[in-house]
Amino acid sequence: MRIVLVGPPGAGKGTQAAYLAKNLAIPHISTGDLFRANISQGTPLGVEAKSYMDAGNLVPDSVTIGMAEDRMEQPDAADGFLLDGFPRNLGQAEALDVYLKGRNLKLDAVLDLEVPEDEVVKRIAGRRICRKDSSHVFHAEYNKPKAEGVCDVCGGELYQRDDDREETVRKRLEVYHTETEPIIDYYKAQDLVVTIPALGKVAEVTQRAMSALENGE
Ligand code: AP5
Fold first, then answer.
1. 3 state SS for the chain
2. For ligand 1, is residue 67 a contact (CB within 6 Å)?
3. Is 146 considered catalytic here?
4. Residue pLDDT, tens place only, 158-206
5. Is 42 among the domain residues?
6. C-beta 15 within 6 A of ligand 1
C-alpha cells in the first residue's frame, strides 16, 4: 500500500504512522524525521533545514522533494510506504504524482487526521521526543514513558523539540492552513481522502484508520 498521512502539527501523524506502518508492514517515511536526523548528524542539508524548521516555515521544495524521492527509492519501500509530512504543499503533491506515474504506481489512500486546534496545542505542549531517534514520541501526560526523561524504545534522552515553542507552533499552524490544507482538496478530486477523527486514545485512532483502509472507505 502507498499511503499519505496528513493533518496539522501535533495531530498524531508520527504516533499513528508508527503503528500503521507496523500493521501494514511498510516503512514509515517522515520528512520531519529525515530532517531531524540530518540536523543531529550536522550534514549541510540539516544545517539548511534547521533555519526553516526553527522559524516554523517549510523547507524549500528544491531540498525536500529530492530527499523524499531518495527515501522512496530505498529497497524497503519497493512494495509500499506510509508518507508522514510529505507532501506538504501543492508543488510537492504534483511532484509525487509525477514520481509515482513515472513508475506506474499510484497512491491507495490519503488519511486526513482531524483534531481540534486546542487539542493540537495541548499535544504539542507536552510532546517529548527521543534524541537518538525522533520517531520515538511520548507525551508528558497522555503517553508517558516508563521512566521520566528516558525513551522506552532505545533508552535515549527525551527532550522538547526546538520548533515546539509557542510562537513557532502558531506559525506552523498558519503554514498548515495556507500551504498544506489545499492538498486535501487536491486529493479529494482524486477520490483518495479518508477523514479519520483523531480524538481519543492512540489505539482507538489506529483502529479507525485500519478499519477505513480495510473497508476501502
Ligand atoms: P514534522 O516533524 O513533520 O512536524 P509536523 O507535521 O508539524 O507534525 P508534528 O511532528 O508536530 O506532529 P504529529 O502530527 O507527527 O504528532 P505526534 O505524533 O508527534 O515537520 C517539522 C518541520 O520540518 C516542519 O515545520 C517543516 O519545517 C519541516 N518539514 C517536514 N516535512 C516537510 C515537507 N514535506 N516540506 C517542507 N518542510 C517540511 O503527536 C503529538 C503529541 O501528541 C505527542 O506527544 C503524542 O504522544 C501525543 N499524541 C498523539 N496521539 C495522541 C492521542 N490520540 N491522544 C493524546 N495524545 C496523543
1. CEEEEECCCCCCHHHHHHHHHHHHCCCEEEHHHHHHHHHHHCCHHHHHHHHHHHCCCCCCHHHHHHHHHHHHCCHHHCCCEEEECCCCCHHHHHHHHHHHHHCCCCCCEEEEEECCHHHHHHHHHHEEEECCCCCCEEECCCECCCCCCECCCCCCEEECCHHHCHHHHHHHHHHHHHHHCHHHHHHHCCCCEEEEECCCCHHHHHHHHHHHHHCCC
2. no
3. no
4. 999 888 988 899 999 999 999 999 999 999 999 999 999 999 999 999 9
5. no
6. yes
